[in-house]
Amino acid sequence: MIIVNTDREKFISGTCGKENFSIPYDEVLYDALKDIEKHSESAKTATEMEHYVKSAKELIDSYNYQESIATKIPGVVFVKSTGKYHLVIGDGYSDLHIPDSIAKTMIDNLERSIENEPLVNLCRRFIFPAGGPKPTQARFQYLAEYISQTYVDSAERDRLMKEKNLSYEVATEHATYKDMQVTRSGYLSTFKVVEEVLKKWALVRDDSGKIVMGDDGKPKRVLVDRYEKEVEIDEMSGEITEETKWPEYLEERVFTPAIHRHGDKFYSENEHGSKLGYVYEIGKVARLESWDQVNCQDGHKHLPGLHFGGLRYIQNYVREGREVLNAFICPSQIGRFTDSGIGEMACKSGYIWGAKTIDGITKGLYSTSTYDALRAKEIKEEIAKAAEQMTAIEDENKKKRYEVAELAKVLGL
């Protein structure tokens, strides 16, 4: 006997001979099994029925769940020889396989009709050659661990318990977030702990406005408040209050690293220009000049590079007098991973797009598309450098040149 049923969405189930079966839904396979079921109904002998049962069983047994899943995730292929999912590159696939935890998330997303484009783009950007450390399977696994972490907001949990009368377990569930989000373009949404620069250097001038010279013959300078203060006095109590006149837009405010300020200087730049120093500015890319300025030894802490991380990482550094900036990080710009997903990431560059802890407005609207435009020039330069290094005609170099070109097409460059 052959019986075939389906919900036309998640499964095909039924009976084949004396055995029951259940496999994920596939339209072509379902139609083929239904055709066999229909013909089996006209069987006159046990031998004829056995023939139909055998045909149906062969179809069921030949069904490859992994291959079927991969065909439904654009940009992904299942490779039988490795038993893993890989990224599609032209007519082939990437040497590195997608880490199991990311692949599992992709499958879960597919079953729940959640788009996989962010994860696929994340993986593409990671394996894209960018002059930094070579992508390896071990480093790919580090990346997977970073994006799988969660963060419990204890303050929000306590608020939910107090104000909403939720139990500890339920409140914890509602106050648990992804430690780092992945954007549609495949960037990591991370954070940077900084201090705002509230002082600036000014030349000393006399009452007539003339610059005052020092004994060394050089102009005198002095540190002054970067922003004006409004001072008021209560005429009854005599109490004096001061209020800082903050700039109208967040782009006009300047930040500096909260921890290390004496390492390599980095550029703060956008399409209008750049400056070298220890300055983070909203709407600009913070970028070290060379990969030589990034220590790329995975698993090691507090070494050179621009440090970014998730919510669990920054909680160790957030305190009064410090601020938290929002930053997009391209996976190709990560030189070092630490602490299996909860520590710092040492990067060559990152795009500062907002301020998590400061209320205010921006002149511009900063999104991943803005970062795409700023990254495009640098990526093209990286492609050119990679091509220069692949002048030999060995098969491996031919393959690498092909992968560079195909990945550039995928990334729209």
Radius of gyration: 29 Å
Number of strands: 23
Largest β-sheet summary: 8 strands, antiparallel
The average pLDDT value, as a whole number, equals 87
Helical content stands at: 25-40%
Described by the principal axes of the CA atoms, the overall outline is elongated
Q: What are the segments in which pLDDT stays under 50 over at least 5 consecutive residues?
A: none
- Summed up, the domain count is 4
Helix segment tally: 11
Alpha carbon gap, first and last residue = 56 Å
Alpha-beta content class: alpha+beta
User: What proportion strand?
Assistant: 25-35%
Provide a short characterization of the protein structure.
The protein is of the alpha+beta class and 413 residues long.
Record the SSE blueprint.
Elements: E1 2-6, E2 11-16, E3 19-24, H1 27-40, H2 46-62, H3 65-71, E4 76-79, E5 84-89, E6 92-97, H4 100-111, H5 117-127, H6 137-148, E7 150-152, H7 154-163, H8 168-174, E8 176-178, E9 181-182, E10 188-196, E11 199-203, E12 221-225, E13 229-233, E14 240-244, E15 255-257, E16 266-270, E17 273-277, E18 284-287, E19 306-308, H9 311-314, E20 323-329, E21 334-337, E22 345-347, E23 349-355, H10 368-388, H11 395-410
Antiparallel strand pairs: 1-2, 2-3, 4-5, 5-6, 7-8, 9-10, 10-15, 10-20, 11-12, 13-14, 16-17, 16-18, 18-23, 19-22, 20-23, 21-22
